[in-house]
Amino acid sequence: MGKRTHKRNYDIFSNYNYHVPGISGMFILLAWMLVGALLGNLASMLVLALFANTPDAMGYATLVSYPLMFIPPMIYAGYMSSRDSLFDVGFVLDNDHVKPLGWPFCIVLVIMGTLAASFISELCGFILPPMPEWLENTLGNMTEGNIWINLICVSIFAPFFEEWLCRGEVLRGLLNFKRKDKDGNETRGMKPANAIIISAAFFALIHLNPWQAIPAFLLGCLFGYVYYRTGSLKLTMLMHCTNNTFAVVISHIDRFKDADTMKDLMSMPMYVSLMLFSIVFIVYLVFKFKSIELQGPQGNCDRISA
């Protein structure tokens, strides 16, 4: 008898295909994330104690504590997915519905769209009170310390873990969870617009302060729309990475360090023109992604059998 072979599965996302949480499941994930945050804080204190005399001690602590925050919800979601795969259908976390636009055009669209949305979200700063000094220092440590540590945390960890949670788990779940309609018939998901808004609000909530939460909500709506049309977690991770990397890079450029907003760096006519261009480009992005055909009213998350 020949040697038995076993095909290994290196697709991390497939471990979560059958966990399709609704509203209650979303809050359970949040509770597990709070458990992870507690573990992360304990680990952070240990790292700070070990590297107390190291200039980048806070950066090392973040490298350890940030991923730990997501481990409990990932373990829980993986367990629930494994259990539910025995009797319920699943929905693939990461899909590739980009026709007729194609990958190169989609990548250009989402990168430019993210920068445009980030620029538009700057308007929130004009309606919010000044950021407390302690929070400003905390956020500054995340973007102005060791640039390589910052890039790992902000440009790799944050896009991967937060998009897995907010789009892959929460939005995909809200679009496809099993429920009863008003007539008692079994159906799937809620209205896509509501699902996108709720998932964006969840994304804002985990940032824990309004100075980050309001821009996160606006960006989350855009990320959610792209995920709804394409089902691609890769694209939303790229968008998240683009936004965060841009913030890290400009924080290390001397010219930008003393500027509160982009308005401080350009004339008012140029600022207004760039703002209008950004708004028009977001409308253009929405219009272009509408050309991607949906498999059904709940979007483009591929369904798989139990």
Please describe the topology of this protein.
Blueprint: H1 23-50, H2 57-84, E1 90-91, H3 103-121, H4 133-144, H5 147-176, E2 178-180, E3 186-188, H6 192-205, H7 210-230, H8 233-251, H9 254-257, H10 268-289, E4 303-304
Antiparallel strand pairs: 1-4, 2-3
Helix pairs in contact: 1-2, 1-5, 2-5, 3-7, 3-8, 3-10, 4-8, 5-6, 5-8, 6-7, 7-8
Structure description:
It is a single chain. By secondary structure, this protein is mainly alpha-helical. The chain is built from 10 helices and 4 strands, in the order ααβαααββαααααβ. The chain has helices at residues 23-50, 57-84, 103-121, 133-144, 147-176, 192-205, 210-230, 233-251, 254-257, 268-289, and strands at 90-91, 178-180, 186-188, 303-304. The strands form 2 sheets. The protein has a two-stranded antiparallel sheet. A two-stranded antiparallel ribbon has the order 2-3. Helix 1 packs antiparallel against helix 2, helix 1 packs antiparallel against helix 5 (147-176) and helix 3 (103-121) crosses helix 8. Mean pLDDT is 86; it is low at 1-10.
